[in-house]
Description:
InterPro entries: FAF1_2-like_UAS, Thioredoxin-like_sf, UAS, Ubiquitin-like_domsf, UBX_dom, UBX_domain-protein. It comes from Psophocarpus tetragonolobus (Winged bean). This protein is of the alpha+beta class. Helix content is 46%, strand content 16%. The chain folds into three domains: 13-54 and 62-191, Glutaredoxin (3-Layer(aba) Sandwich), CATH 3.40.30; 231-301; 306-384, Phosphatidylinositol 3-kinase Catalytic Subunit, Chain A, domain 1 (Ubiquitin-like (UB roll), Roll).
Amino acid sequence: xxxxxxxxxxxxxxxxxxxxxxxxxxxxxxxxxxxxxxxxxxxxxxxxxxxxxxxxxxxxxxxxxxxxxxxxxxxxxxxxxxxxxxxxxxxxxxxxxxxxxxxxxxxxxxxxxxxxxxxxxxxxxxxxxxxxxxxxxxxxxxxxxxxxxxxxxxxxxxxxxxxxxxxxxxxxxxxxxxxxxxxxxxxxxxxxxxxxxxxxxxxxxxxxxxxxxxxxxxxxxxxxxxxxxxxxxxxxxxxxxxxxxxxxxxxxxxxxxxxxxxxxxxxxxxxxxxxxxxxxxxxxxxxxxxxxxxxxxxxxxxxxxxxxxxxxxxxxxxxxxxxxxxxxxxxxxxxxxxxxxxxxxxxxxxxxxxxxxxxxxxxxxxxxxxxxxxxxxxxxxxxxxxxxxx
Length: 390
């Protein structure tokens, strides 16, 4: 495709989100992202399920803001697939807030595409670039993808947030504190598949280190806050126990107190007992933390034969399963794991890796994950035998 030469420099800027989107982020974080537990594949366009986008003419159904937004996301997939088919990156049909939360949980950046179907560059970009095999494979492995129509739903709000000068408009986004997002890269205008993949690869390499470091600091803060809460809870329980003992002592008749001269002086030691209880709790917390650190270091410092490998397996119905192997395990181990799941409709199949594309079948069963380049993490697609490989 023809494209002009542009200087896509990697920049990091903060963008303020509209209040309606911020409300969605709060709800997504509050409900624990329940849609993920129901299966991520259900949030993608299901070609065997018809989702009505408008109520019947003779029935008036009041629609909430969330319902209108959900319709907007399905409208994007409907519009996109009607014009360009079902071979495209794995776009999640959900609120922008839910997609951001999903990206944060997967430790990935969000790739956002804003579609303006009437723009003269849109048709060529979607057909020749966005739906090309190298771009699909690269985005599916490295990003969580979200798309919106530039003239409806949350797409309108994101256009107002990013203020693109032209279309098509793509952006690489990372979560940020407060009512903002970190826009790591914003791409506008036509791009070839090689240009798009090259820019995205460079963004990952230059911004990924900083993103990972910030994530590690955040995890460390969460662990410290958890330990502080545990110590505060222990102190509260100790104080509650002491207050109950005091109440029991105060409620005793005077003659019983006189009959127990040895027990009365013990009330003077309540403060000391509570401090001892708190100190023991802190020591136990430190011991548990030390055990966890040693265990984690033990896993990392074991011989090269025990280094873990994360394998994400995607099934034809959109379902995803992730499992940890060792890089000395063979391809046969992955097949055995899939067979142990007992999923219906899984017969003879082979596994396909992408970027670069490679098939794994009977001939590769004895090869290790390191030998096949699937270490330290990889995504494999389950392909039933008999399906033509493009």
